[in-house]
Fold this protein.
Amino acid sequence: MSAIFNNGFFLLISIITIGLLLGKIKIKGISLDLSAVIFVALILGHFNFQVPHDFQSLGLILFIFTVGIQAGPGFFSVFQKYGRQMLIISFLVIFTGALVTVILAKIFNMDSNMAVGIFTGALTSTPGLAAAIDTTQSPLASIGYGCAYPFGVVGVILFVKLTPRILKINLNREEKKLHQDDLNEHPELLDKNFKVENDNIDGKTIGTLRILSMTGANISRVLHQNIASTANADTLLHKGDVVKAVGTQKSLENVEYLIGSPTDQKIEFQGKYIVQWVLVTNKKNVNKTIGQLNLMKMYNATVTRIRRSGIDITPTAGSKIRFGDKLMIACSEQNLNEVMKLLGNDDKKLSETDLISIFLGISLGLWLGQLKIPWGSFQFGLGITGGVLLTAIILSSIGKTGPILWSMSGSANQLLRKFGLLLFLSSVGTQAGKHLTATISQYGYKIFLMGIVVTLIPMLAGLIGGRIIFKINFLSFLGVITGAMTSTPGLGSVSSLTESNIPYVSYASVYPFALIMVIIFTNIISRI
């Protein structure tokens, strides 16, 4: 039996299988889900069963890359809106961890090299440990890391799992709040008909009147002398005409003020005229603007709205379209078929995954992670995790480079992310488990206790900063706290709590900053 378990592949599959089965067990509504894998790995690691380290690196790369790809499209908008708050919380977490480490090291009369290792282990920062080893050239850093790391991993997972229950936070309600915030930022688009009554716009074109820029609404149809037509910048408006406007409630009120009163009179097209959603799946048109598509001149078709990630956006000539967008098209039935060919409208392509973009993106990330930037007496590098994450964020934000789409379908992303996480948890758990008993026996309870405190106190400080001071949404907070603690397993445990993308975006927003701060404070602690 022992020989079988010593087979790396069999051990890996066994840990994942047992962990997934245990993760299904619920006690008072609480389950470990995927996180149960690391507990199984810790136990087997204690008995000297080891999953090859290569699985840890591979799993980490796959997990971080998919997180970056998922978070990328919304990363910069979220960072612009909440970035300052997130960075302050992240700094508070890491600064508190460093301060507590220094204080406890003085109280316990502990070697600074050991303290550095405990600090990086408690914050589960492997790049921080690498910097500590490079700075101290002492094996004590690795020992401190090995002792603090297990609870650093487990502690963040437990914090993420238990804090919502202890504070009685309804995560479904938090998710709905986020959705409402999105609606407030991108209000629902409505349509309404108006009668042209303003003498000042009689005989002028829609382009001359600059209706979109003045009101925020699009004119999609015009009824003139009982003849309906699609609207464009050259369409003339006359008193008595009826126009159909698409926009938010506020923008439609502006239209009423500019054009005239609302009317129930309908605008019916003669012949077969269709208004329909069309899916953008043609790679050639991704990142093109509505103006560049030239639908009006080519097909006498109008884009009245764009639906992206469940949010309706008012289109302008400069609006760029992304893969997977839905465009509301108004045109004749015959021309609609041509528009559908142009845009793609192929549901199957949404589920396809371009393996070239995945492996090319990972390769670029690994290359970026290897770069070293001189910083005083040491060199700073993003490492594997930082390089892959930053590359994925940038590429998915760009969306497309030549024929390559930097995107993945939701199902493919989820599958690859969970697979990578399982590989990572299995390997990192057995690696940590083998050091646990030996380190405690040799150095006593103080190191273990110190690791626990350095893990918990910074998260409590972050909780005070995030929920009491800044009052950020709890799902955003979960992403920030796992990013600040540089805890990939902690982020993985969030996936079982919500389907929202926000924790991943928040994690990606603070992780690079947290990585740098851990390395800086590592060098500071080693010199105290």
In short: The mean pLDDT is 81. The two ends are 50 Å apart (CA to CA). Residues 2-44+56-181+352-526 form one domain. The chain has 22 helices and 14 strands.
